[in-house]
Amino acid sequence: MSDNSHLVEIFDTTLRDGSQLEGISLTVEDKFRIAEQLDFLGVSFIEAGWPGANPKDSEFFERAKNELHLMNSSLVAFGATRKANSKVEDDLVSNALLNADTSDVCIFGKTWDYHVEEALRTTLDEGVAMIADSVKFFVDHGRRVHFDAEHFFDGFKNNRDFALRALDAAANSGAQYLVLCDTNGGTLPDEVYEIVSVVVDRYKFGESSPVISIHAHDDGACGVANALAAVRAGAREVQGTINGYGERTGNCNLIPVIANLSLKMGYETIPRENLSQLSPVASTVAELVNMPLNPQAAYVGSKAFTHKAGVHTSALSRRSDAYEHLEPGIVGNKTRYAVSEMAGRTAVEIKAHELGIELDSISINEITDKLKELEYLGYHFEVADASLELLLRQAAGWTQNWFDVERFEIVVDEPSGEVGRFGTSSTLTTKANIVLNIDGKKYSESAYGNGPVNALDNALRQAIESHYPQLKRVHLLDYKVRILDSDKATGAITRVLIDTTNGLETWTTIGVSDNIIEASWQALSDALIVGLLRSEKTS
Fold it and tell me: What's 253's DSSP letter?
């Protein structure tokens, strides 16, 4: 990275700002694991929290001294400037930051005159002094200082002279990074470009000039766009979070920032060989914060390179860039084809090939027509991957011979007393009776359950698990019901989706009928058949 003009440093604040998203509560161990992922990705800085603000952050920084071994990233401790009308040497926050013993500190100060006078209840001169004193304190103690100019864009628009004066105080005191914060997240890209350009021009005074950075929030859905606009204006650091986690609508999402800067704009961000880790890291961090990754997330979502329309899949089969803005593997993702009524024969052929199923031209045409017919009836194979697989295998001549159901019935016993009224402790009892053939022999089983689906599942398992013990590892995860034409009242078509797992993988099956029991049975029996098919593949 010899040409610094094409280097944009990545400052990650997932562990600090990102953790302020409602629903995220990281343990100390979580923070260590996420920090390791960020270091593996190769970001320049990892802002890990606010030492002294809470026991978890204090424990993290104390343990990090001996337990966190970063190879690529610098650890950053976060805090505020000193309090008004006090000495920085006596400030508890400042001393907690110093005791964190990190190479870098990030401190925020007020650059909007409104906040200085109304929130801090002090003078503008004292607001400037708070910034200058705090920055100098850390510089004098050998720390690299990132100064977060809080509410800078709003402050600049309200009182330009004071906002720039606050920046000057940080720069003249030795801050190596001046971070322009769009704290409320409402600034637009053209405004960001204009204001950042002013700041960049102000500090072009040689090798010792501070790096201009952008810290954007996404309240106006412009977080990423604002970061890119800032870089075009001369900013050389971007702050943000993995997957855009953060308070309210979130912070600037570093995943598309890194990808766009590196792959579209010619800048160096993380090591180029690490770009393929964007998808794995995004997924891993999502797991660690216990929030599902948005399937439509740019670059890294499971649907980011998924194609449904027939014209798309046909074109992609001939040229990969026909409907993809880059090769998915570059960011660790892959092309997927959703097979639906909108899909043509090319999508069917590609999907079958992915599953290792050989279909001739006639079969492809037949299954394409059948898919359109079934989707018209209410099936939705995009979300029922396993049922689609069974359909394709059957089109290739495959039949399952594990079991054959002759008939089943559901019996509901009404308890004594009133049913369905408040204050009644009685519950309905549901029993499933099933008759099936296994290896030419007839078996009958009955089982009770918590509702008809559970009863059917129990009865079917009782009948076949002794023959196929591998099904003991197969468990139902979720059961979803949707009424497709509610205007028909009790005669409406019902769609049932069942999620199933064997502990190693998860699959979804579908059933559609005007009888909810029949729809449930379709999805349930397919789920167990796929479970047997999966066990056969891995045995």
Answer: B
pLDDT single digits (tens) 424-479:
555 678 899 999 999 889 999 999 988 888 899 999 999 998 899 999 999 888 88
Residue 127 CB partners (closer than 8 Å, separation 6+) = 84, 109, 110, 113, 116, 120, 166
Task: Give the DSSP H/E element, type plus range, for residue 370.
Answer: helix 361-377
Residue 486 has a pLDDT of 60
Is 262 exposed, middle or buried (CB count within 10 Å of its CB: 0-12, 13-18, 19+)? buried
Cα 143 to Cα 147, 449, 512, distances in angstroms? 12, 65, 65
Question: Residue 446 belongs to what H/E stretch?
Answer: strand 441-449
What homologous superfamily does CATH list for 4-270? Aldolase class I (3.20.20.70)
pTM for the model stands at: 0.72
Decide if domain 404-417+426-538 falls under CATH 3.30.70.100. Answer: no
Architecture per CATH, domain 306-394, reads as: Orthogonal Bundle (1.10)
* pLDDT tens, residue by residue, 302-339: 888 777 655 444 544 454 555 678 889 999 988 776 66
